[in-house]
Amino acid sequence: MGYEVKLDIFEGPLDLLLYLIRKNKIDIYDIPISLITEQYLQYLRVMKSLSLDLAGEYLVLASTLVHIKSQMLLPSPVLEGEDEVDPRAELVRQLIDYQAFKEAAAALEGRPMLERDLFTRGDHTEEMPGSEDDQERFEEMSVFALIEAFGRMVARMDASEKLQIDMEKISLADRIDEIMERLAREGSLSFDALMERQCDRRRLIYTFLAILEMVRLRMIRIYQRKPFGAIRIVLAVEG
Amino acid sequence: MEHIKAIIEALVFASESPLSIDRIAETLEGIDRKEIVAVLSTLAEEHEARGGGFLLKEVAQGFQFRTRPSLGSWIRRLKRSKPLTLTPAALETLAIVAYRQPVVKAEIDRIRGVDAGGPLKGLLEKKLVRIQGRKDVPGRPIIYGTTKKFLEVFTLKDLSELPTLKEFKDLQG
Amino acid sequence: MEHIKAIIEALVFASESPLSIDRIAETLEGIDRKEIVAVLSTLAEEHEARGGGFLLKEVAQGFQFRTRPSLGSWIRRLKRSKPLTLTPAALETLAIVAYRQPVVKAEIDRIRGVDAGGPLKGLLEKKLVRIQGRKDVPGRPIIYGTTKKFLEVFTLKDLSELPTLKEFKDLQG
Q1: Of B18, B118, C82, C104, which is the most exposed, with the fewest CB atoms less than 10 Å away?
Q2: Which of B101-110 are b and which e, b meaning 16 or more Cβ less than 10 Å from the residue's Cβ?
């Protein structure tokens, strides 16, 4: 076989396998596993000898192929009333799936593409600025842009003050938001009522942490008229 | 009627992104949506027949003037720009997101047999793919989908215009 | 000749600023400037005669398609309903509020390294950010957080759907 094919022309182990199947003109539903495994492993050896970085996925598929090969050598005990399962079936399904998406990708690329085959009007200098009032609609916006912007800023910061951002902080913000909204609506809340509504334990903990955080930030005040009496929460904001 | 046609043409022309029938209707209060649709299709036909440098196309649930696809190389020469290119990995990842959306990264990795992190990030940066939310399963993985820009770039009216995925393809030959 | 006309029309249409005859000549090597001038004037006449929504006009620096002046009021109406976009500064500010809320302005300024007053005001007006209260420290600074509208615009069910920095970094691998 020709080794002129470079590793980087394959998009992954499945792509390499499809290439071998096409090259050998093999029926995908009846893959001669021994032959294909041998050729696949040979490719990996060549890649290794060329000191090409092999993605771990290539080795995973190699072991899958070897495993299928060994299964096919063993006479499988067929249970009564059950069809014999072809050890290759799962791999074949995966290959067919992947092949379908490869074709879909090629079809996409074949479409007239903006900024490649066609262009929109370039000159918008003529336009008058729109007024900024009562605009309600937004362009489609992606949260990726947000995390990207945030990530950029974090990257700019000194290592000593890297921001910690995790799910805890966010869950906390959610609960604070909820409590603030209820306070705005109802004026004051009883601590018990706030905690009672929380059926799940995680939420209960975050609600409690949120109250502590809000007290720390002086966003709310907490009153208790007598020992063991009802605890009331009110907004600390004036006006 | 002639006047309405000129107004609608000017509106589509002046808009920086594909202009929806809704926004045209909103701007021309009192004009029936059916009439707007009729005018737009007449305009599209007229521009096609004119044989000029640009055409009126329906894309991403709106209308937009775009240069004739066969003239792309001339405009690239003018702009001295490299054509928008997507690597095979990015295209495969994009195809999976387009057809399987909403989809999690693990599913894309599984179908392609390799980690899709790099291509996925590139697609997010190019705004062809967006984060749609999180899946309600343990670990709450992020789910991905395509954007309006995806429709614009590939000249699609909407997702239903994507050709059906081939179920079976003979690999021989 | 017909083909040259379509190409020149497409070039003027796609150009980011009024297109000069020199640039056209440069792009279409071997075509005589006189021919280019002739094509441009034919095109201008044709568009005038067509009575459509836009015209080909010669301006100081070159040629440019412009909407018919008499339709200006309609275009202004359209632009008023233009969907909002966020400037990079607004997006950065919004990212900090989203991820660090409840947060005070001094903290946003510190992270961005510049005064966030302008962007913050814009975000408040756009109802993406709201005042959540005041911090009870000297000066009683205002505490900011995101709104329900913020969740709607970014199609999030709640704040816990925001991607984390770790997930963002994992994509870069």
Answers
A1: B118
A2: eebbbebbbe
What is the predicted pLDDT for the residue at C80? 82
Same domain, B117 and B158: yes
Determine the residue among A134, A147, A203, A207 to mutate to test chain C binding: the one whose Cβ has the most chain C Cβ atoms within 10 Å.
A147
Cβ neighbours of C80 in A, within 8 Å: 130-131, 135
Q: Does residue C44 belong to any structural domain of this protein?
A: yes
User: For the whole prediction, is pTM greater than 0.90?
Assistant: no
> Domain residue spans in chain A?
1-77+84-114, 118-239
Q: Are A86 and A8 in contact (CB under 8 A)?
A: no
User: Residues C53, C109: one domain?
Assistant: no
For the cut 60, the answer to whether the pLDDT of residue A6 exceeds it is no
Query: How far apart are the C-alpha atoms of B133 and B123, rounded to whole Å?
Result: 16
Q: Give A13's contacts (C-beta < 8 A, 6+ positions apart).
A: A55, A57, A58, A60, A61, A62, B113, B114
Helix axes A89-110, A13-23, angle to 10 degrees: 90
Kindly state the tokens that stand for C105: 């302005």
Whether B113 and A13 lie within 8 Å, measured CB to CB: yes
Cβ distance B53 to B71 under 8 Å? Answer: yes
In a domain, B137, yes or no: yes
**Assigned domain for C81 exists:** no
Q: Is residue B82 part of a domain?
A: no
Q: For B134, which of C23, C81, C161 is closest by C-beta distance?
A: C161
For residues B15 and B55, membership in a common domain is answered with yes
Q: How far is C103 from chain A (nearest CA, A)?
A: 10
Range of the domain at B14: 2-71
Instruction: Read off the CATH number of the domain in which C31 is found.
Output: 1.10.10.10
Residue B67's pLDDT is 97
Class of domain A118-239: mainly alpha
Residues B118 and B152 grouped into a single domain: yes
Mean pLDDT by 10 residues, chain B (173 residues): 87 94 92 95 96 96 96 92 88 97 96 94 94 89 95 94 72 41
Give the helix ranges, DSSP H, for chain A. Answer: 13-23, 33-49, 56-73, 89-110, 143-156, 167-186, 191-196, 201-216
* B112/A12 CB distance under 8 A: yes
ipTM: 0.83
Nearest by CB: C11 against B7, B13, B78:
B78
> Which secondary structure element, helix H or strand E, spans residue A190, and what is its range?
strand A188-190
Same domain, B102 and B156: yes
